[in-house]
Amino acid sequence: MVEIACQQMSCWNEKDVLSYFAKVGFFYIAAQNGGVELITTCLQYFPYLMRNNTIRLQAAVLHRQEKVFNLFLGGAVTTKYLAATFDAQTQENILHKVARLAPYPRLSSVSCPALQMQRELQWFKAVEKLLNPTQRTIKNKKWETAREIFTTEHRDLLRDAERWMKDTSNSCMVVSTLIATVVFAAAFTVPGGNVEDQGIPLFLKEKVFILFVVSDALGLFSSTTSVLMFLSILTARYAEEDFLRPLPKRLILGFASLFLAIACMMVAFGATLYM
Fold first, then answer.
1. What gap in Å lies between CA 224 and CA 165, rounded to an integer?
2. Cβ(251)–Cβ(197) under 8 Å?
3. Which residues of 232-257 are buried (b: 16+ CB within 10 A; e: fewer)?
4. Contact 172, 255 (CB under 8 A)
5. Digitized pLDDT (tens) for each residue of the chain, 275 residues in all
6. InterPro entries, per this entry (predicted)?
7. Contacts of 13 (CB under 8 A, 6+ apart)
8. Degrees (nearest 5) of the Cα angle 162, 168, 173?
9. What's the CATH number for 1-157?
């Protein structure tokens, strides 16, 4: 339907097309709801619509539609277009607006509070990079900078993210410690036992015994790594900037090493049963 409509409108002059898109406002609704296909089709027929995209870009930023945002940035958008979105009534620019908490439907699309906080920080940093230092420090009518608004708006989310990180780290660290204890004990009670008065395992020359030793050692190293990662999360300061890279990075490393420890423990268990 969009293709047919654009084909019918292709014979219009530029002034009529701009007037029509400004009147109906569905371009703004498409940017607000992430309708990239609709916007792309319209731009293919009427590329000059890209020149007047301040409102659509603002809608994409406020509603956290990264595909639409990247689409506009890939065109003729420069910093001056983004800086032009200035509200004379509140004296706020686009950075003040993106500093506020995202709408609930977009916020709930991310699984946990820690990653929600990371996404909000990523959006704030992405818009901040496109503005010059003077525009970043502009104060609104209440004499608040964009950074101050971000801290105030995300105070509850920051607290929820900190609580979630601590609870998750505590639970995972218990599992990692249990696995480390099991695989550590298994290294000294090898399957089949040892030769009397020599301490040499009976299955030393078996290939499956090598598999048991390697998987058990790897399970011990990965489980202790997981414990260290979750311990570093528990002792972190939980500042806003920590949720951008350090804390999510430690969480991913902790989960990955814990998964590897569980897999190695199962391999060692299977090798023991085989022997």
1. 19
2. no
3. ebeebebebebbbeebbebbebbeeb
4. yes
5. 889 988 988 889 888 888 888 788 777 788 888 888 888 888 888 887 776 666 677 778 888 888 888 777 755 454 556 666 677 778 888 888 889 998 888 888 888 999 999 999 999 998 888 888 888 888 888 899 999 999 999 999 999 999 999 999 999 999 999 999 999 998 888 877 666 767 777 777 788 888 999 999 999 999 999 999 999 999 999 999 999 999 999 999 999 999 999 999 999 999 988 88
6. PGG_dom
7. none
8. 125
9. 1.25.40
Phi and psi (nearest 5°) for 166? -70, -45
Residue with tokens 């814990």, as numbered in its chain = 258
Tokens of 250: 């430690």
Q: Is 201 helix (H, G, I), strand (E, B) or coil?
A: strand
CB atoms within 10 A of CB 258: 22
Predicted TM-score (pTM) of the model is 0.80
Tell me the residue type at 255: F
Cα gap 27→46, rounded to integer Å: 13
What ranges do the domains of the chain cover?
1-157, 163-274
Whose tokens are 């489980």? That residue is 223
Amino acid at 95: L
| Beta pairing partners, 55 | none
Q: For residue 87, what are the β-bridge partners?
A: 92
Quickly list H helices, 201-240: 207-234
Tokens of 90: 């509140």
- Would you state the structure tokens that stand for residue 228, as one six-digit string? 């260290």
